[in-house]
Every structure is written in structure tokens, then in C-alpha cells.
Specification:
Blueprint: H1 2-27, H2 41-56, H3 64-68, H4 87-94, H5 110-115
């Protein structure tokens, strides 16, 4: 269980850097990101560590209306699907930016994926 929790925080930290890089590519700056985490035992046990990791990486927590005031959220989304991807990824697809940008998306550790089967 500790390994899963530790790897969860590491994976989420890699995602922070990944989405900051994508937003910088699209908007020439880091934009306010919106974090959705689901109610789960993993998140209940690690939300404190998760918050520390975000703060260590320079994140500042704001409410949703404040984040949405950023001009990036006025960007038109023209491509939709039934898959759960981020707004940054939707903007990339809508702009027809080469999807090679997705190549660096941090992957869930294989042992976790395998255990979910």
C-alpha cells in the first residue's frame, strides 16, 4: 500500500510538470490548472502529501471562478469525445497541434495497471 501511495504522488508530480509544459507550449505561460480528484481511500490517505507536492512545485490553490477568469479558459474547444482528457489536451486537439506533444504524458506504473485487470 505504501508503494502505491508513494508512486501515486510521484506520478501526480510528473503530471504537474507535463501539464505546465503543455500550457506553456499553448499559451506561452503556465495557466491556472483545475485539479479534479475523486473521493477514494487513496486520495483520503494521501491528500495531505498531494497538497504538499503541489505547493513544493509552486502551485497556489484558488477557487474555480478565479481559475476560470484566466483568458486561457476562453479558448474555443471544437473537438469533443467521450474520453476523459484535460482541457489542455482538448485545446491541443482543437488547435490541430501535433499530437506528438502527448508523447511525454506520464504513465501509470505497469504494476498498478496490471493489478486493475
Amino acid at each position: 500500500m505504501n508503494r502505491i501511495g508513494s508512486d501515486y504522488i510521484k506520478c501526480m508530480e510528473a503530471k504537474v510538470h507535463y501539464y505546465d509544459q503543455l500550457s506553456t507550449t499553448l499559451f506561452d505561460r503556465k495557466i491556472p490548472q483545475i485539479l479534479l480528484i475523486h473521493a477514494s481511500l487513496l486520495n483520503a490517505d494521501y491528500v495531505g502529501e498531494l497538497a504538499k507536492m503541489y505547493q513544493r512545485n509552486g502551485s497556489v490553490f484558488v477557487d474555480l471562478p478565479t481559475a476560470l477568469r484566466d483568458t486561457a479558459y476562453q479558448e474555443k474547444v471544437t473537438k469533443f469525445g467521450s474520453y476523459g482528457i484535460s482541457w489542455v489536451e482538448r485545446w491541443i486537439i482543437s488547435r490541430s497541434v501535433p499530437k506528438g506533444l502527448f508523447a511525454n504524458d506520464p504513465k501509470t506504473p505497469v504494476y498498478i495497471v496490471d493489478s486493475a485487470r
